[in-house]
């Protein structure tokens, strides 16, 4: 027998309509790409989002069409999260730091019809425009006077486009909560980037969970500042969670300069800010140098890689700021587990919990499995492969039938290795996927190995992650020289610098006579890590 409750769909547009009606005067503050501070309210945001949906409709965009978005966090980009999805189309959030090839690959794979980009992101499209197979035009998130000269064709000014529309009430499309809403590609595995297609329902539910006290715990008295870019797993749910909570939103734009970020945190009375550990390490340094504090900031949410224990301790003791450490992936709509110590434990015992990746919030589940795929009991102190499932966890990758996302039991294969203790807290110990995470961004060790092995004096190359104080992890190259060659590390790095992005360049190069291999002939990275990173378990514990 069906329950007799109203059949309201969990749609993203309902979130901004709610914020507009109930918290219409709450501010959204942005640092624009030009550097000025812009202020308006959720009511304004909703109006402009409706107008944008109408404008896209006029451009012929249909439900299910993919629209690329490449922008730093500011109010216009926020509006597109609602305007695009409110029409039933799908916002493909693009990481502007990708190489031209990866960028073109994802845009073509998604078959994006239009690209929404802020002025700062236009050059990346100029570099690959001839390779883009489906793009019909570019909508620039600017006022007309700030649109730069560009070689791109069919460039449309966003502000003009929505001014022409004039329909603040343009009706949202009738979308089903299971329909796709946002598409985010992840490079966090080997091979080509893979698309994670969120539904309306998964975005709404993960934002609900985000606001619960066991997760971040956000309400209308809070001011949220997502320093994490919106292209990273939907900005960890903030574009939906903040309006849902009626919380003031502060968007930092493109400038990741610590003084600028600090100015916003203090000046706008931010209470909760979110970023990868690299940012928080730099902020600590900035405050020590300038003798400042963090004003009203009470909570930092950090994820993406393991935060150092000392960093958590320093924020707490020196600045009175609590660190909420979260684990998640693009595939799990960002945050899935959060670490919170129980009441009444000692300072040290609390820190012991905060360095763990924490417990899942209701709606997501995790388990660790052994080599046979069997769940490892919590009291057995043995690591295994981490699996996840839940209301906002991917079941498949977009248009990639040959790349299964889940195991035969339907649990997401995360590529992370860890343990779940009797207290239910997850402790990551390693990573099975062959990638390095530097400052929150992926570096493919395989691509680096291939580039290094292309050097005429190198027979074999292996790349592993080494702990790094600022970037958390950096690539480290281990190579076997061709017999008789005396090629130096500096020469190899010079060779690589012409083949990979600067931030991909290994920290160092070591030469060895032989690279160890596993029984199946793969490079034995575990053995290499033991040999070259002995005693430094930064990834596992964050204690770099
Ligand atoms: P992404 O899909 O880019 O968000 O990356 C997700 C991956 O980042 C995870 O599978 C982990 O390897 C890593 N990661 C995320 N959060 C943490 C954390 N709290 N501690 C350690 N690694 C993390």
Summarize the helices and strands and which ones pair or pack.
Blueprint: H1 12-22, E1 27-31, E2 37-41, H2 42-58, E3 66-70, H3 75-86, E4 90-93, H4 100-110, E5 114-117, H5 122-128, E6 137-140, E7 155-157, H6 158-165, E8 180-186, E9 194-199, H7 200-210, E10 223-226, H8 233-236, H9 238-245, E11 248-251, H10 258-267, E12 272-275, H11 277-290, E13 299-302, H12 309-319, E14 322-329, E15 334-339, H13 347-354, E16 359-360, E17 364-369, E18 384-390, E19 412-420, E20 426-431, E21 435-438, E22 441-444, H14 445-453, E23 458-468, E24 472-481, H15 489-497, E25 508-511, H16 525-532, H17 538-541
Parallel strand pairs: 1-11, 3-4, 3-5, 4-8, 5-6, 6-7, 10-11, 10-12, 12-13, 13-14, 24-25
Antiparallel strand pairs: 1-2, 8-9, 14-15, 15-16, 17-18, 18-19, 19-20, 21-22, 23-24
Helix pairs in contact: 1-2, 1-9, 2-3, 2-6, 4-5, 7-9
The protein binds adenosine monophosphate (AMP).
Adenosine monophosphate binds at residues 186, 188, 233, 303-306, 325, 327-330, 357, 414-416, 428, 431, 437.
